Amino acid sequence: MAANYKTDPILTVDGLKQYFRINSRFTVKAVENVSFRIYPGETYGLVGESGSGKSTIGRSVIRLYDPTAGTIRFNGMDISGKVSRSDNKALRTQMQMIFQDPMASLNPRKKVEDILGEGLDIHHMYRNSAERRQKIESILAKVGLAPEHASRYPHQFSGGQRQRVGIARALIMNPKLIIADECISALDVSIQAQVVNLMKDIQEETGAAYLFIAHDLSMVKYISDRIGVLHLGHLLETGTTGEIFENPIHPYTRSLLSAIPSPNPVVEKNRVAESYDYRTSGLDYAKGTEHLVSGTHYVKCTDEEFERFTER
Amino acid sequence: MSENKEKILDITDLDISFRTTAGDVHAIRGVDINLFRGETVAIVGESGSGKSVTMKAAMGILASNATVNSGTIRFSYHHEDGTPESVDILQKDKKWIRRHINGKRIAMVFQDPMTSLNPTMQIGKQIMEGMIWHFKTPKQEAWNRAVQLLKEVGIEDAEKRMKNYPHQLSGGMRQRVVIAIALSCNPDLLICDEPTTALDVTIQAKIIELIRKVQKERGISVIYITHDLGVVAKVADYVNVMYAGKIVEKGNINEIFYDPRHPYTWGLLSAMPDLDTDDERLYTIPGSPPNLLHEKDGDAFAPRNRYALEIDDKLDPPMFQITETHSAATWLLDPRAPKVEMPEELRNRIERMKREANEHGSEL
Ligand SMILES: Nc1ncnc2c1ncn2[C@@H]1O[C@H](COP(=O)(O)OP(=O)(O)OP(=O)(O)O)[C@@H](O)[C@H]1O
Ligand SMILES: Nc1ncnc2c1ncn2[C@@H]1O[C@H](COP(=O)(O)OP(=O)(O)OP(=O)(O)O)[C@@H](O)[C@H]1O
Ligand SMILES: [Mg+2]
Ligand SMILES: [Mg+2]
Q1: pLDDT at residue B276 is higher than 80
Q2: Which among A268, A276, A280 is the top mutation candidate for probing chain B, defined by the most B β-carbons within 10 Å of its own β-carbon?
Q3: For residue B310, what are the β-bridge partners?
Q4: Beta strands A226-231 and A43-48: pairing type?
Q5: Is A55 in the pocket of ligand 1 (CB under 6 A)?
Q6: Whole-angstrom distance, CA of residue A80 vs CA of residue A71
Q7: Is B112's CB within 8 Å of A102's CB?
Q8: Which of B20, B163, B198 is closest, CB to CB, to A100?
Q9: pLDDT tens across A246-280, in order?
Q10: At what angle do helices B201-218 and A251-258 cross, to 10 degrees?
Q11: If you measure CA to CA, which chain B residue comes closest to A142?
Q12: Which residues, listed in sequence order, are joined to residue B251 by a DSSP beta bridge?
């Protein structure tokens, strides 16, 4: 099943702001007025530099933070405030997050079979213990791990194996939306490809939507239907993968694309990427408004900047 | 190669297994790696192939269920007064290593930043800790240097960030704090385990530049463990390709990228996503990594190798020397083996890479 744009979006984020107050003199404005939507079966890639607010958006969506402003709707229901107990329980199966730091998100005292089985137990997703075990072994196999890995503890794995345990934990619940935060970054290319192919298959089968957070643009290009480019908490540019890669408008997006490393030693050792520095760029993100480029391609900037970016 | 190069790390015949409830996992099966002063070596290979375990052994920090079955890890350095010293890390106890080696002479940037950061301690204190403990650096001086390091790894508002706790930082910021800690004590050998996986390309470039600068200034040696072949292409002088606890191919950077010989290396290079192709599915190396719990005879890669010969099921191939720097463990290099070419698609890709390289004035 491909992305279904004819129905209502599965996730709508509107004017999301997320601030963190560190002390009276220092407040981190992690997310500034961000809006986007994701449709069933769609993969939305969120890219941007370290600290730009990608994980914070993901964590706000799965309700780990109270938004400073804005609304988040899942399946039409407003989930940015308080929700009823039964809605909360449903949300916990329907939305899953694969966390960026697998070691910090896996309970070190639990064996993998119990980490994977926990959600199944809570939501009574099996008839007997044989079915439970079968579900666990089959998901392990799908992410490229062996049945005997089920009896190990998280610290007894390699980094990439641990990351796959986190992926398996999310996939086993059959959610409608998966927030995948840098979920393949610790994997070698062959296993990255295996996991990405697996995620595509599961999407095909179940129509799940993905919010795919990553900094590796070549993988994002491959998996995403649409892409959003985030910088300093602002969503600067969004559009289909083709629109962004073939016609990047914002200078920040352009610098990102020019910095993709090439696996060619001589070329790579000679390459100079386009540089971009917000402070000296003369841009003021806070003044920007949405400008339509074409189709579904939008850029956030002032009218004057828009003219400058597009006259080429 | 010049004769007076100074060898700083020499790992020979390293063999390690882990005890688990399901049986012994034979994770490292005879690894040889050496490294000279000022050089950069990359270790690449599939997830679970033993890259991190090998380097943890060099730091003397193996997990408690590990057994070293054989091998030596010789590390050479100079005392403060200049006298040379050479030790086998495997023969030293943990306390000695902590006092004389870890952080001070060999520093490691761990793959999972949260495992090496203390969640209840401000990050500034964590960066200052090593300088104060190893060198008795005065507090104010350590503070200044910590702020400086945070700036160098590209963290804005460095002074304000000093007081942050790890959970208040983004994933990539935490990774950069770990890099700052590793650089704080001016080590002779820096081991970076996936140091830039969580970093976007611009900051990644900045970190790589920083490490290269330190390397030039102080002549330190660097080991990069990474699956990102773009990073390898950028930084490495030499590359070791690891598969199932063994080095299966080693060579200088151009030999590995433009003239790979081992079928596993072919698979690895073929699996790189390529911005120029629009395939529906990505190439993956068929099959799965061997289960190191149940070892079998012969070449561990044979079941996944479509070029495998009959002998591969019986006998593990030795390293065949190709040039002075290039060698690979595959029976395909035996003079009696039938002549086998790398996959056509990869050959085309390499031809294209060579053409691009030649446009940069290189003779390949
Ligand atoms: N719990 C928190 N308390 C205080 N500040 C926080 C918290 N979580 C995030 N921040 C801050 O918010 C900003 C955005 O962080 P976030 O983790 O969203 O970045 P990111 O885009 O995911 O970056 P990376 O690619 O490095 O993971 C950072 O400046 C970070 O320090
Ligand atoms: N404490 C442990 N107990 C049992 N097995 C272990 C332990 N630590 C590591 N292993 C196993 O040893 C093998 C090598 O692990 P290592 O961490 O070196 O892999 P790696 O090459 O670094 O992989 P990655 O790229 O995924 O980080 C893996 O199969 C792993 O499961
Ligand atoms: Mg993040
Ligand atoms: Mg590792």
Answers
A1: no
A2: A268
A3: none
A4: parallel
A5: yes
A6: 5
A7: yes
A8: B198
A9: 999 999 999 888 877 777 888 877 777 677 888 88
A10: 50
A11: B288
A12: B239
Nearest CA in chain B to A46: B200
CB contact under 8 A, B233 and A102: no
- Please indicate whether residue B20, judged by its CB atom, sits closer than 6 Å to ligand 2: yes
Cα A167 from Cα A172, distance rounded (Å):
9
pLDDT of residue B43: 96
What is the tens place of the pLDDT at every residue in B182-237? 999 999 999 999 877 767 777 787 888 889 888 988 889 999 998 888 889 889 99
Query: With a 6 A CB cut-off, is B235 part of the ligand 2 pocket?
Result: no
| Pairing verdict, β A177-181 and A209-213 | parallel
Q: What CATH number has the domain bearing residue A132? A: 3.40.50.300
pLDDT tens-digit series, residues A167-211: 999 999 999 999 999 888 777 777 787 888 888 888 998 899 999
Please report where in the chains the tokens 């490809």 appear, as a residue.
A193
What pLDDT score was predicted for residue A26? Answer: 86
Mean pLDDT within B338-361: 88
- Rounded to the nearest angstrom, the distance between the alpha carbon of A59 and the centre of ligand 1 is 10
- Whether A2 maps to a domain, the answer reads no
What are the structure tokens assigned to B323, written together? 């040039």
Q: How far is the CA of B48 from the centre of ligand 4 (A)?
A: 7
Output the pLDDT for position A151. Answer: 92
Instruction: Calculate mean pLDDT across residues B138-145.
Output: 97
Tell me the C-alpha distance between B248 and B319, whole Å: 8
Residue B203 in contact with partner chain A when CB distance is under 8 A:
yes
> What's the pLDDT at B2?
47
State residue B91's pLDDT score.
Answer: 95
Give the orientation angle of helix B201-218 with respect to helix B171-184, to 10 degrees.
0
Mean pLDDT of B231-247: 93
Contact of A186 with chain B, judged by CB distance below 8 Å, is answered with yes
Consecutive H or E run containing B7: strand B7-20
The rounded Å distance from CA A27 to ligand 1 centre is 12
In a domain, A135, yes or no: yes
- Return all residues near B209 (Cβ < 8 A) that are at least 6 apart: none
Could you say which of B51, B113, B230 has the minimum Cβ distance to residue A268?
B230
- The runs of H, that is alpha helices, within chain B are 51-58, 94-100, 113-116, 123-135, 139-152, 158-161, 171-184, 201-218, 229-235, 253-258, 263-270, 344-359
CA nearest A145 in B: which residue? B288
With respect to residue A4, please indicate whether it lies within any of the assigned structural domains: no
The answer, yes or no, to whether residue B92 has pLDDT greater than 50, is: yes
Q: How much distance in Å is there from the Cα of A31 to the middle of ligand 3?
A: 12
Max distance between CA atoms of chain A, in angstroms, equals 65
Q: What is the domain count for chain A? A: 1
The residue-averaged pLDDT of A35-58 equals: 94
State which residues form the domain around A63. 11-309
Instruction: Determine the pLDDT at residue B282.
Output: 67
Query: CB of A192 within 8 A of CB of A144?
Result: no
Question: Is residue A278 in some structural domain?
Answer: yes
pLDDT for B278 beyond 70: no
Work out whether strand B327-328 and strand B320-321 pair parallel, antiparallel, or are unpaired: antiparallel
Task: Please name which of A311, A18, A32, A45 lies closest in space to residue A196, comparing C-alpha atoms.
Answer: A45
The pair of three-digit structure tokens given for residue B124, joined into one six-digit string: 């500034």
